[in-house]
């Protein structure tokens, strides 16, 4: 049983490391697309059309996961944030 737990923990770490590697590989491609010259700006409906694609939803989910993790670590015992900042 302990071997199985260690094996699961190792596979989980490897999976997370693979996800981070994929995120890092996607950054240059995303920056290239974001900074590409366009004849005209993308409209609101064009943005919505891109958001509802499979890749768009995946990207939004990854961004939200990152922001949630980031927010969780903003408030710590050493650096408590006030409840009503805004």
- Kindly report the average pLDDT value: 76
Structural class, from secondary structure content? mainly alpha
Task: List the secondary-structure elements in sequence, H or E.
Answer: HHH
β-strand number: 0
Number of domains: 2
- Pick out the low-confidence regions: none
Strand content: under 5%
Main beta-sheet strand count, sense and barrel state: none
Count of DSSP H/I helices: 3
- Overall morphology: extended
Euclidean distance between termini CA atoms: 50 Å
Instruction: Estimate the helix proportion, in percent.
Output: over 70%
Q: Nearest-angstrom radius of gyration?
A: 19 Å
Question: Any overview of this molecule?
Answer:
This protein has helices at residues 2-35, 44-51, 54-74. The N and C termini lie far apart (50 Å). The mean pLDDT is 76. It is mainly alpha-helical. The protein folds into 2 domains: 1-37; 40-77. The protein contains 3 helices and no strands.
């Amino acid at each position: 049983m302990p071997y199985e737990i260690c094996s699961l923990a190792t596979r989980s770490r490897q999976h997370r490391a693979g996800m981070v590697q994929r995120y890092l590989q996607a950054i240059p491609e995303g920056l290239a697309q974001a900074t590409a010259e366009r004849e005209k700006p993308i409209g609101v409906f064009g943005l919505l059309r891109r958001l509802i694609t499979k890749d768009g939803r995946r990207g939004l989910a990854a961004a939200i996961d990152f922001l949630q993790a980031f927010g969780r670590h903003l408030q710590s015992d050493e650096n408590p944030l006030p409840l009503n900042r805004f």
